[in-house]
Amino acid sequence: MISNVDLSPAQPKVFKDQKKTNSKKALHQKAKTVRENNTNTSDYKKASFTKRHLFIIAGTFLLFIAAALSFYFFHADFREINLSRRNTLGGSVLLIIAGLLLLFRLGFLTYLARLFFKYKPINSVPDAQLPFSTIIVPAYNEGKQVYETLKSLVNSDFPAEKLQIIAIDDGSKDDTWYWMKLAKEELGTRVSIYQQPHNQGKRHALYRGFNLGTGEVFVTVDSDSIVETDTLRNLVSPFVTNKNCGAVAGNVRVLNNQKAIIPRMLNVSFVFSFEFIRSAQSVLGSVLCTPGALAAYRATAVKNCLPQWINQTFMGKPTDIGEDRAMTNMILSQGFHVLFQRNAYVLTNIPEKFSSLHKMFTRWERSNVRENLMMSKFAFKTFRTGSKSGPRLLLLNQWMNMLTTYPAIIIMFILLIAHPVLFLTSTLLSILIFSSLPAFFYAKKYNIAESFWIYSYSIFYTFGLFWITPYAMATASKRGWLTRELPQKK
């Protein structure tokens, strides 16, 4: 059994003023305060609207109404523009390409829908069959949230004797280590805590956890996340029922969805991204990314690729982002299946400000570019037994999204300059049509009122974040996590 606490090196200077309050009484008092302020983990299923929320949603639909009226009043003009474009070679080619792309998108969506209806989550196996599992929680500048994360893991409906929980502070500059020691104080031998000598990145913190862990299954949980009581047992059960299973993706929801507009919109978006898209991918045994917030891996599969994973480079530089997608790719390349468990919920914090959100999306997209290249190296080879057409089609769709990015941006600016009314009208009506599928999906599964946020999010993304993918493609070799840094005093 590993040692429970590694207190070296000494705490950073920022903690000197806390030493006076480091008594048990102070620890327990602070814990009480956190418990009183703890977020209700069922909030993602509820709906409550303030006047500001109603104003935003009402404004969203006023834009759609304006677009519909514009189409009605300027229909003749729009028709004339389209006819004039068809009479030119460039316009005809553009219309043909646009039509083919639309057919591909609709066909691919139909294919995913067909797979979705085949998907069924695997029920939890009995306690006796649950594998011994190591939970690894890397933390950096997380503050008191890591305390709540560790408590939710300990409170899981999972046999204590089959659970090893390891938390690693990756050289945080705030009071993260303090809160980890507080969790250790309360939870005792249920939790083991370690501290990196300095900030090395999430990948290195996980690497240390993988080497310390003794479980048959490794579970990674972000330190700003809360798991539900049955999450862990549901997450690891596929390893028992499916010997080809190498990794399992959890079902991510937004923890802070009641605090700000951006998390609220993303909560609805996440439902479609996970419960529809990853469900379909799971039927193919080819979930493309196991999320950092919650994922499980067969230990033998991890150890097979651990040296390659920790030493991964891109364009000659060490890779410090996309550790989850990279691990998923390396496990897929070994011939294992990667599945999704809809019944394994985790609630995670999402950026509440635009400045942090676009940095998070940029990091994700850079990782996407890198790992699509990596997957292309093995996807069209005999990397596993059975059908390989599914994962290949998923990869082709990824490349289609990337390759059409720059042409779409150029066409967007040309139309915006040449025909601004036509561009805005057609864009808004397209958003209304294509956002209705995830809206209906969320309304059917959770809440009708909350589903309207997907329309606001689609407008927000289309006009505010459209540049993320082309920028990430152009800067794919750049390093840096971009978020989680503390504000600098001026």
TrEMBL record:
GO terms for biological process: extracellular matrix assembly; hyaluronan biosynthetic process. GO terms for molecular function: hyaluronan synthase activity. Pfam families: Glyco_tranf_2_3. GO terms for cellular component: plasma membrane. It comes from the Bacteria. Signal peptide: none annotated. Residues 21-32 have a biased composition (Basic residues). Keywords: Cell membrane, Glycosyltransferase, Membrane, Transferase, Transmembrane, Transmembrane helix. Residues 16-37 are annotated as: Disordered. The chain crosses the membrane at residues 54-74, 94-113, 408-434, 454-474. InterPro entries: Nucleotide-diphossugar_trans. It is found in: Cell membrane. Its main location: membrane. This is Hyaluronan synthase. It comes from Salegentibacter agarivorans. The lineage of its organism: Bacteria, Pseudomonadati, Bacteroidota, Flavobacteriia, Flavobacteriales.
